[in-house]
Amino acid sequence: MTILRCLGLFTSVVTTALLGCQGNLPSETANSPAAPLTTSPAAELPVVTVTPKAAAMIKQHVAELRDEIPNGGKLYLRVRVVPGGCQGFMHKLDLDLKVSAENQVCESGGVSVVTFRSQGEMLRGTEVDFGEENGKQGFKVENPNFKGEDAKKWLAVLEREKDVR
Questions:
Q1: Could you identify which of 20, 55, 64, 81 might form a hypothetical disulfide with 49, taking C-beta atoms 3.0 to 4.6 angstroms apart as the criterion?
Q2: Are strands 103-108 and 111-116 parallel, antiparallel or unpaired?
């Protein structure tokens, strides 16, 4: 059985002090070959950071799904970028049971976060928060790599990935 649950999402600019994760492999894939990460100044930023508010909501969702998780499995917050939306991309948040060698896993705010290795640099510096905007509550994703001219570089990568996946 696969549990893949989409979490509500809206994007917004957020500033807050956080605990981040650098993108390490889970122990079950530690022997798999790792894709090297670029050593740009941005490489010093965590891949994904989860704020305390977002972590609390994610943990609440996980607790609600506990009975659906087979054999005491673990749910991960999968953060990814997919083509679509009015800007050409969307950030997608899911709860996922599966982690493979093509993923990197880290902890942030007590939440296990999984991303595709191929999107490591694309997501580096991303913050997941939970808040209210215009009377609606939901998760907010702020990714500094999808602003202005930087977005064009990643949109081309997403188009290539769309054809592969």
A1: 20
A2: antiparallel
Give dist(CA 105, CA 56) in Å, integer.
Answer: 19
Structure tokens at 20: 């981040």
Contact 123, 69 (CB under 8 A): no
86-113 pLDDT per residue, tens: 888 899 999 999 999 999 999 999 999 9
Q: Which CATH class name applies to 4-164?
A: mainly beta
Contact 46, 22 (CB under 8 A): yes
Closest CA relative to residue 38, chosen from 127, 153, 165: 153
Asked if the model's pLDDT at residue 30 lies above 60, the reply is no
What pTM value is reported for the model?
0.73
Tokens 């595709």: give the residue. Answer: 116
Domain ranges of the chain: 4-164
